[in-house]
Design a protein that fits this description.
about 0% strand; single chain; about 50% helix
Protein backbone atom coordinates (compact mmCIF):
# COMPACT_ATOMS: atom_id res chain seq x y z
CA UNK A 1 0.00 0.00 0.00
CA UNK A 2 1.14 3.56 -0.65
CA UNK A 3 1.27 4.65 2.99
CA UNK A 4 1.81 1.98 5.61
CA UNK A 5 1.96 4.53 8.45
CA UNK A 6 -1.82 4.85 8.68
CA UNK A 7 -3.12 3.86 12.09
CA UNK A 8 -5.73 1.14 11.96
CA UNK A 9 -7.56 -1.10 14.37
CA UNK A 10 -6.63 -4.15 12.30
CA UNK A 11 -4.15 -6.75 13.47
CA UNK A 12 -1.22 -7.69 11.24
CA UNK A 13 -3.06 -10.86 10.19
CA UNK A 14 -6.16 -8.82 9.29
CA UNK A 15 -4.05 -6.36 7.31
CA UNK A 16 -2.58 -9.27 5.33
CA UNK A 17 -6.11 -10.54 4.63
CA UNK A 18 -7.20 -7.02 3.66
CA UNK A 19 -4.31 -6.69 1.23
CA UNK A 20 -5.20 -10.02 -0.40
CA UNK A 21 -8.90 -9.15 -0.45
CA UNK A 22 -8.22 -5.80 -2.13
CA UNK A 23 -6.08 -7.53 -4.75
CA UNK A 24 -8.78 -10.16 -5.29
CA UNK A 25 -11.64 -7.70 -5.70
CA UNK A 26 -9.70 -5.28 -7.90
CA UNK A 27 -6.47 -6.77 -9.28
CA UNK A 28 -3.93 -4.87 -11.34
CA UNK A 29 -4.51 -4.67 -15.07
CA UNK A 30 -2.59 -7.25 -17.07
CA UNK A 31 -0.68 -4.52 -18.91
CA UNK A 32 0.42 -2.90 -15.64
CA UNK A 33 -1.31 0.40 -16.40
CA UNK A 34 -3.77 0.21 -13.52
CA UNK A 35 -2.59 -0.82 -10.07
CA UNK A 36 -4.26 -3.35 -7.83
CA UNK A 37 -6.48 -1.93 -5.08
CA UNK A 38 -3.86 -3.32 -2.68
CA UNK A 39 -1.49 -0.60 -3.93
CA UNK A 40 -3.87 2.18 -2.84
CA UNK A 41 -3.82 3.31 0.79
CA UNK A 42 -7.23 1.92 1.68
CA UNK A 43 -6.74 2.27 5.42
CA UNK A 44 -5.97 6.01 5.06
CA UNK A 45 -9.12 6.38 2.97
CA UNK A 46 -11.15 4.68 5.71
CA UNK A 47 -9.63 6.82 8.43
CA UNK A 48 -10.38 10.03 6.53
CA UNK A 49 -13.62 9.30 4.73
CA UNK A 50 -15.32 6.24 6.18
CA UNK A 51 -14.27 5.62 9.79
CA UNK A 52 -17.71 4.15 10.48
CA UNK A 53 -16.90 1.29 8.07
CA UNK A 54 -13.78 0.15 9.94
CA UNK A 55 -15.66 -2.02 12.42
CA UNK A 56 -17.65 -3.70 9.66
CA UNK A 57 -14.44 -4.22 7.68
CA UNK A 58 -12.89 -6.07 10.61
CA UNK A 59 -15.96 -8.32 10.70
CA UNK A 60 -15.63 -8.95 6.98
CA UNK A 61 -11.94 -9.79 7.32
CA UNK A 62 -12.77 -12.30 10.06
CA UNK A 63 -14.77 -14.29 7.49
CA UNK A 64 -11.49 -15.23 5.83
CA UNK A 65 -8.80 -17.47 7.32
CA UNK A 66 -5.21 -16.40 7.97
CA UNK A 67 -4.14 -18.53 4.99
CA UNK A 68 -6.36 -16.53 2.59
CA UNK A 69 -3.44 -14.33 1.39
CA UNK A 70 -1.41 -17.45 0.52
CA UNK A 71 -4.09 -19.04 -1.66
CA UNK A 72 -4.04 -18.96 -5.44
CA UNK A 73 -6.04 -16.07 -6.90
CA UNK A 74 -8.63 -18.48 -8.32
CA UNK A 75 -9.29 -19.92 -4.84
CA UNK A 76 -9.48 -16.43 -3.32
CA UNK A 77 -11.99 -15.43 -6.01
CA UNK A 78 -14.09 -18.49 -5.12
CA UNK A 79 -14.08 -17.53 -1.43
CA UNK A 80 -14.99 -13.91 -2.21
CA UNK A 81 -17.86 -15.17 -4.39
CA UNK A 82 -19.13 -17.25 -1.48
CA UNK A 83 -18.98 -14.18 0.74
CA UNK A 84 -20.74 -12.04 -1.89
CA UNK A 85 -23.64 -14.47 -2.12
CA UNK A 86 -23.89 -15.21 1.60
CA UNK A 87 -23.97 -11.52 2.62
CA UNK A 88 -24.65 -9.44 -0.47
CA UNK A 89 -25.32 -6.16 1.42
CA UNK A 90 -21.97 -6.32 3.26
CA UNK A 91 -20.20 -7.26 0.03
CA UNK A 92 -21.77 -4.29 -1.79
CA UNK A 93 -20.67 -1.93 0.99
CA UNK A 94 -17.13 -3.34 0.81
CA UNK A 95 -16.93 -3.03 -2.97
CA UNK A 96 -18.30 0.52 -2.82
CA UNK A 97 -15.56 1.50 -0.35
CA UNK A 98 -12.85 -0.22 -2.40
CA UNK A 99 -13.93 1.47 -5.64
CA UNK A 100 -14.42 4.83 -3.93
CA UNK A 101 -10.87 4.80 -2.56
CA UNK A 102 -9.41 3.39 -5.78
CA UNK A 103 -10.82 6.04 -8.11
CA UNK A 104 -9.76 8.86 -5.80
CA UNK A 105 -6.12 7.84 -6.18
CA UNK A 106 -4.12 10.27 -8.33
CA UNK A 107 -2.25 7.30 -9.79
CA UNK A 108 -5.49 5.66 -10.97
CA UNK A 109 -7.02 8.94 -12.15
CA UNK A 110 -3.93 9.67 -14.24
CA UNK A 111 -3.94 6.13 -15.68
CA UNK A 112 -7.55 6.47 -16.85
CA UNK A 113 -6.95 9.90 -18.34
CA UNK A 114 -8.64 11.97 -15.63
CA UNK A 115 -6.97 14.96 -14.09
CA UNK A 116 -5.43 14.08 -10.72
CA UNK A 117 -6.28 16.07 -7.63
CA UNK A 118 -9.48 17.55 -6.33
CA UNK A 119 -12.26 18.26 -8.82
CA UNK A 120 -12.53 21.90 -7.71
CA UNK A 121 -9.00 23.33 -7.68
CA UNK A 122 -8.01 26.98 -7.79
CA UNK A 123 -9.97 28.09 -4.76
CA UNK A 124 -13.27 26.47 -5.66
CA UNK A 125 -14.25 24.43 -2.65
CA UNK A 126 -17.38 22.92 -1.23
CA UNK A 127 -17.68 23.16 2.54
CA UNK A 128 -18.14 19.78 4.16
CA UNK A 129 -21.81 19.04 4.65
CA UNK A 130 -23.00 21.97 2.49
CA UNK A 131 -25.48 20.50 0.04
CA UNK A 132 -26.84 23.83 -1.18
CA UNK A 133 -25.00 23.42 -4.50
CA UNK A 134 -27.31 20.49 -5.25
CA UNK A 135 -30.44 22.65 -5.23
CA UNK A 136 -30.39 23.08 -9.03
CA UNK A 137 -30.15 19.31 -9.46
CA UNK A 138 -33.03 18.69 -7.04
CA UNK A 139 -35.13 21.35 -8.80
CA UNK A 140 -34.91 19.40 -12.07
CA UNK A 141 -36.97 16.61 -10.58
CA UNK A 142 -36.66 12.96 -11.27
CA UNK A 143 -35.11 11.93 -14.55
CA UNK A 144 -34.47 8.38 -15.56
CA UNK A 145 -35.67 7.02 -12.21
CA UNK A 146 -39.36 7.65 -12.85
Amino acid sequence: MENATTTTACTDAQLRRLSALLDTVLPASTDGTLPSAREIDFTAYLSEQAPEFQEELIGILERFDDNFPDLAISRRVDLVRVFSSSDAPAFRRLVFRIYDSYYQSDRVRTAIGARPGPPFPNGHSIPSGDLSSLEAVKARGKGYRR
